[in-house]
Amino acid sequence: MNNSRQSEPGRFLTATAKGPRDEQQDAVLCLSDPEQTRAFLVVSDGVGGNTGGGLASLSVIESARIFWDEQKGKFSNPKSALATVCELSHKKIREVGDKQAHSARATIVALYLTSTEAHWVHSGDSRLYHFRNRQLVERTEDHSVVQILVNQGKLDEKEMGSHPSQGVLLQCLGGDEYPPPAFGKAEVTADDAFLLCTDGFWERTSTKEMVQTVFCLRSESSDYLERAVERAVERNGPKGDNVTVAVALPIAEKSPDSTKKGSTRRPILWVALVLLALCALLILLLHWHP
């Protein structure tokens, strides 16, 4: 019996838009076990406008779905499992490309999440962002020319999305050789959130806006995500890219302004203590006789 399913609105959500492109070359997968204690999120982007880009990204999603089903939604060795997904996807892309006589290639970013651990893999410039308590903990580093420029201090990270060489990748899935992907992992708390996306999203979306999307009220999360995708499409302009996002919201649901409330209580308390101290000092002075 297959226990995988497309997750219902809740912690794990996806949103995608074709934008002004003629073809949707992004693809996304969002699966969880029935109790939503484990989840598998995958985002893929057909590379460089290749004619086989759409088929390539769909091949990644199909390979990931089949593997999840075969494993019954539980990866006993997450890093090995994610490596296998990449290898299977690469092989599938090559098979599809050969049959269609297309140059099929695609990025991948995939997250396997439990209540205590997160494991991820990526190849290309589709990204994973890891947040905790509304702060960015980590993001994946693109396999791209502009990422090298940033690492060398020749380019500011904020300029990556608008650089002429953005989209020039050093590796992805498909092609003659299989490039080893990059892996990451982290312990997970109830205040952790993850966002996976294609370059059509991160190029036009700040981390502050991502925080607002993944730390909103659960009841408003779908609307926030849809608006974030629509905003990216609008900012990309008439020659913009496809846009795709998958998110894993934090287990602990907090009001978006709860941090602000907590931060304002402390100054008020200090002001009250200072006033009390001043009053005590004034009383002492009034009753003091030299």
Structural class label: alpha+beta
Q: What's the Cα radius of gyration?
A: 23 Å
Strand count, sense and barrel status of the largest sheet are: 6 strands, antiparallel
Q: Helix-strand pattern, N to C?
A: EEEEHHEEEEEHEEEHHHEH
Helix content: 25-40%
Backbone shape: globular
With strands numbered from the N-terminus, the spatial order across the biggest sheet is 1-3-4-6-7-11
**CATH structural fold name of the largest domain:** Phosphatase 2c, domain 1
CATH class of the largest domain: Alpha Beta
DSSP, total strands: 13
Strand content: 15-25%
As for the number of domains, it is 2
Let me know the average pLDDT: 88
CATH superfamily of the largest domain: PPM-type phosphatase domain
CATH architecture of the largest domain: 4-Layer Sandwich
Describe the structure.
With 290 residues, the protein is α+β, with helices and mostly antiparallel strands. It folds into two domains: 5-254, 4-Layer Sandwich (Phosphatase 2c, domain 1), CATH 3.60.40.10; 257-290. It has seven helices and 13 strands. The strands form three sheets. Strands 1-3-4-6-7-11 form a six-stranded antiparallel beta sheet, with helices on one face. Helix 5 (207-214) packs antiparallel against helix 6 (221-236). The chain is globular, with a radius of gyration of 23 Å.
